[in-house]
From TrEMBL:
One of its GO terms (cellular component) is neuron projection membrane. It comes from Anopheles culicifacies. This is Ig-like domain-containing protein. InterPro entries: Ig-like_dom (IPR007110), Ig-like_dom_sf (IPR036179), Ig-like_fold (IPR013783), Ig_sub (IPR003599), Ig_sub2 (IPR003598), Ig_V-set (IPR013106), Zig-8 (IPR037448). Residues 74-173 form the Ig-like domain.
Length: 177
């Protein structure tokens, strides 16, 4: 990956295209996550859908039913960046845009140690650098990592509490300023 200094914004964020090996890394790390999710700690059902953004599955339409259902399942916005670069010592912002959330909950999970960081607006880590904010006008759930460090680099999962759970993965790189 080639980093150009002029592409780093004052907020310390740079967006990239997905890198090679992303899916293979997820394939090896999701076995741990599936066991964790199946235990009921995050949601009561395990997701067989890993490796990127997943969209709603519309209910099957029977004979005589309208093609437009009365409800829609939550889904991730395709335009959300999957790769973010932050600067050491600055805040890094990981975005997760969820449409049609309804009564479901959005959680952020750090893959390195399968640590639940936030659930809804609540933070479940003693590391006070992590905070989730919800921007209702754009259906965005942003994970802020204050004073980012190189050790914060890695894959973070934005998860919707559907059954099965739906996941969107963001890869954070942290570079010296």
């Amino acid at each position: 990956m080639h980093l150009q200094q002029d592409n780093i914004t004052s907020g310390g964020i740079q967006h990239h295209q997905p890198f090679d090996g992303y899916k293979s890394f997820l394939d090896t790390s999701t076995a741990h996550l599936r066991a964790y999710v199946a235990s009921g700690s995050v949601a009561s059902a395990s997701s067989s859908q890993f490796g990127g953004a997943h969209h709603s599955q519309q209910p099957q339409q029977g004979p005589g039913q309208s093609s437009q259902s009365k409800w829609e399942e939550p889904y991730f916005d395709d335009t959300t960046p999957t790769n973010v670069t932050g600067l050491v010592g600055k805040s890094a912002y990981l975005s997760c845009r969820v449409k049609n959330l309804g009564n479901k909950t959005v959680s952020w999970i750090r893959h390195r140690d399968i640590h639940i960081l936030t659930v809804g607006g609540y933070t479940y880590t003693s590391d006070q650098r992590f905070q989730a904010t919800h921007h209702k006008n754009i259906d965005d759930w942003t994970l802020q990592i204050k004073w980012a460090q190189k050790r914060d680099a890695g894959i973070y999962e934005c998860q919707i509490s559907t059954q099965p759970v739906r996941s969107f993965f963001v890869t954070l790189s942290v570079v010296a300023s």
